[in-house]
Amino acid sequence: MKRTMCSVLMVLLICAGIAAGGGTPVGTLPALAPSAAWAQASQGGKMTEQGTPRSETLVMDQLNGRVANARLFNPYLPGVEINNGLKPLFPPLWEMDTMKGEMFPAVAAEPLKPLNAEFTRFQIKVRPGIYWSDGVEFTVADIAFTIQMLVRTEKLPTSAYWARILKPDTRMLDKYTLEIQTVNPYPRLQQVLGTTIASNSFRVVAKHIWEKQDPTKFENYPPVTISPYVLKSNDPNGQWFLYERRPDWQRTDTAMVAGEPKPKYILYRFWGPEEKRILAAIQNDLDILMDITPESWDILRDKNKNAQAWLKDFPYAAFDDPCVRGVVLNTSKVPYDKREVRWALALATDIQGVSMATFNGMLRVSPLPIPPTTVLQKTYMFPMESWLAAFALPDGYKPFDPSYAEAMAKKLTDSGIKGVPTDRAAIRQLFGVGWWKFDTAQAAKLLQGQGFKKDARGKWQLPDGKPWTITINAPNNFEVQSMRLAFAVADSWKKFGIDVTVKQLESAPFNSAFQTGDYEADVHWPGCGVMPDVYTNMDLNWHQRLAVPNGTPAAGNNSRFKSAQVSAVLDELGKLTDKDPKVVPLTTDFFKLMVAEAAWLPMFGTSKFVPVTTHYWTGFPTAENPYEGPWWWWTGMRYYLTKFKPTGNVK
Amino acid sequence: MRFLTFLLSRLVTYILVIWIGVTMVFLVPRFLPSSPVEAMMAKVAAQGQYMEAAQIESLRNSLMETFGLKGSLFQQYTGFFKRVLLTGDFGPSFSAFPTPVSQLVAQALPWSLGLLLTSSVLGWLLGNAIGLFAGYRKETLASKALEFLAMLIYPIPYYIFALVLIILFTYVWQIFPFSFYIDANKPLSVGLIKDIVYNSALPALSIIAVNLGWWVISMKALSASVAEEDFVHFARLKGVSEPRIMTHYVARNALLPQITMLAIRLGTIFNGALITEILFGFPGVGTLIYSSALQADYNLMLGTISFSVIAVATATLIVDLTYPLLDPRIRYR
Fold first, then answer.
1. What is the pTM of this model?
2. Torsion of Cα atoms, A267 then A268 then A271 then A276, to 10°
3. Which of A282, A375, A473, B76 pairs as cysteine with A522 (C-beta 3.0–4.6 A)?
C-alpha cells in the first residue's frame, strides 16, 4: 500500500506538470524541432511565448541576465540596466562606424561644429523629420532641455559630471539648430555626446514628457523614444523585454541613415547559464548570442548547421573588440616600480603558450597599449613594425619577436586545426604584428642587474633576500578571457621561478582593488579605443596627474604610473581635435615611450565569440560581409537591423 | 507560570538572534574590500560611458551622497535600525537605484516561497514515507532498491542533476518548458495557475529529488532503529497490526528529529535558491542575493539576508514552541 502511494505521488507530480502544460507531445526530436517552451503554431507558423510570429521576431540574449527593476527606463538613474534593449531606445547624436574607426552623424545632421578657436562654443544641427514615438516632433529643444535638466538637477548622480562639461545656457537658432557652451575648452566634445565605445552617455529625453517629472524619481515607463522600436511588453520580473517596430519607423534617424529595420519584433530574453543558452541556440530559439566560450562555440557549430560566427573558419571569433587585455602592474609598489623588472616579466612570458592556454590560440597579440583592431593595426601596429624590430633595451638587447603570428599559425596547423591561413600577410593580420620574445635568459639577466637572485630551489629572491611572490588579481567566472589569461601567465612565470598565485575576485572587489591600488598584478583591460584618436582613454589611464597613493580610489591611472615624458605627450595631444593630422604621429610617439617603459603588459585583443543562428534571419555582419562588427550590445545595433533579412522559415 | 517563563526565554532568544544576525549582515559587507560606489563606477564604465578623471571623481562623490554612505559607521548603523524598525524600509537598492529593496524583495519572495516551500515540504513528505517503509521493511527487495536509489541521487551535485533534468525533459523529451515563462501581466485565473504549475514542475521536481535522498536515508536509519525498540516488540506481541505499528509506533517516534531538521531546512531554503533560479530562469530572491553580493549592494544584501535570518529564527522558534505539542515526553517534563 505504502509502496503504491510513493510511486503514485511521484507520477502525479510529473503528470500535474504535463497536464498543466497541455500535454505537449513527447518524443525524441532533432535539433531543429520546436521546443515545448514555445507556443503552439498559429496559421502554420511558430509563435514565441509572447505571442509574436517567430519568423518576424529577432530573439536576442539578454546580456546581463535578469533585470531587477523591469520598469526602470530612466537612463540617468544609476540602477538602470541598459542591456535589455534600452541602448537602441536612446539613439546618440553621433554614432560610431567601427570598421572605419570614425564617428558619423546619427540623430545629428552633421558633425559637431566648433564656433570658436577655444573650443567652448559649438553648434548642433539635427535631422528634421524625426519624431518621438508618441507623435511629437523631435527638435533641439529636447537637447537643450536634457542639458539643463542634467546640469541643474543636482540630485541626479551624474549631474556633477555634466556640470563640469556643459553650461546650461543654450541658444536655439531654429527647431533643428542649437548652440551650446562648455565650461572649459573641449576639442573632443563630440566624443562625449556621441557613441565612441558601445554606448553614449548623453541620452536625449523628451522635453514634453520629462518637464512634468522629477528626473531623480521618474521611471520613464513605458519609454517614449526616437528609436524605430517601442517597448511592447515585458516580464515584470525582468526576464524578457519585447519591442515592436513603430508604424512610423520612417520618422527616425535609423530610417534616414540606413533604411527599414527588418524585424517587426525584437525579444531580449534571459535564458540562464551558458549551457542553456547553447541549447536554445541549437534549437534555433535564440538568434543572437552574447559572449560564449570557444568550447561552447564548438558544441554549437557541431549541433546546429545554422550557427554562424564572425569568421567562417578557425579562429571564428571577432578580434576587433575595442579593448586589449593583459597584466597591469602596480608601478607604485616595489619591485614593479622598476622598468627592468617589468621588462623581465614580459620576457618571462611564453606568449604562445599563454594564447593556447587561454583561448586555444584564438587570439591576436598587441605589443602596444591599444587593442589590435583592424583599424588600429593599420594605423599604428604595422606602421610601427620597423621601429618595434629596431627597439633595444639599454643593454642593446632587441626584445621584439615579429615571428609570433607565423609560429602560431604553424603550431595550430600542426595540431590539426583546419582553415588557418597560409598567406603571410593574412596570418599577420589575423594573429597580430608580434610580441616580445620568450627569453628567460634575458629576463634573468635583467633581474640580476637589479639585485635579484635565485635560491637553491631555483626560486627568485628579491634584492633584500626575501622570496619573490606575485599575486595576480583575476575575475572570478566573469570576463572569462581575462580569468584564463591570469592562470596562463601565472603558469609561465612559475616556470621561470617566481612564486605566483592567482586571486580570483567577484566584480565589486575586483574593481575596488584595481581602483584603490590594492594589488600587485591585475589582469585587466585598460587600453580601449576604436578610432585612431585614442587620447581620452590613454590620458585617463597613463597621465601622472591621476596617480594617487595606494588606498585612495583612483579616477584613472590605476597602475599609478608616473612618467613626465609620457604625460607631456598626452598634454600635447589633449590640445588637438580628433581630426588633427598631428594626432597619429604624436600618439605614435606616446606608444614608443610606453613600450620603452613597459608601463604595463598588454597581450591580446578581446576575442568575441558572439555567434548567431540563421534559421530565421540572415544578413548578420560577418568577416565576409563586414558592414559592421558583431557588436549586438552597442547603440549602432539599430542600423544593423536594416541589413537583416527574414529567411522565410516559419517553423 | 513555568510556560510563561519558557515562552519569554524563547522570545528573548528569538529577538537577540535576529538583532545579532542583522547587525552582522550590516557590518560584514562594510568590511569587505569592495564598495557599491566602485561597483557602480565599473558598471558605468562597462556601458562605454566617456569620462575624464575629474568627472569620475564628481560621479564618485555624488554616488556616495546618493547611496547614503557618507557619515560614520555608527551613524549609518543607527540610521539603518531606525529606518527598518520604524518603517520596515531597507532603503534603496544600489544596483537597481532608486528602486526600494522592499519592492524587489516583495516581487521576488512569493515566487521563491511558492516553489521552495512547496517542493521542500513535498520532498520531506515523500522522503519520510519512503524512508519509513525502507527502514521498517528493511529486508525486502523494494526497500533495498529504494535505499539504493536514494543513495544514488543524494551525492549528485544539484547543478549537474538539474542540468540533466533540463536536458532530458526539455530537450530530448520536450515535456516541460525550456525556460520559465509566465505572463505575469495576466490577472489571476485558472489559466495563469495552470501556467505556474506547468512552469514550476521541473524546478520543483529537481528540488524534491535531491532532497529526497537525504530524507530517505535519515528516515530509514531512524525507523530501523525505532523498529528494534522494546515497545515495538511489545505492540507486536499484543497483536497490533503491522501497518498500525509502522504508522503509529515507529513513524511517530522517528519523525521527531525529522521535524526539527525540516524546520532548520525551511529556514535555509533560500540558500539553494540561486542555482535553481539561474538554471530554470525562475524569478526569486536567490538572484537578488547573488547580485547584491557581486555588486556590493549593502541594502539589498541587508534586505534579502535579513529575511533569511528572520526565517531561520522564526522556524526555530516555532519548533521550540510546538515541540511539546508533538512530543508528550517534553510536555510532561
1. 0.84
2. 70
3. A473
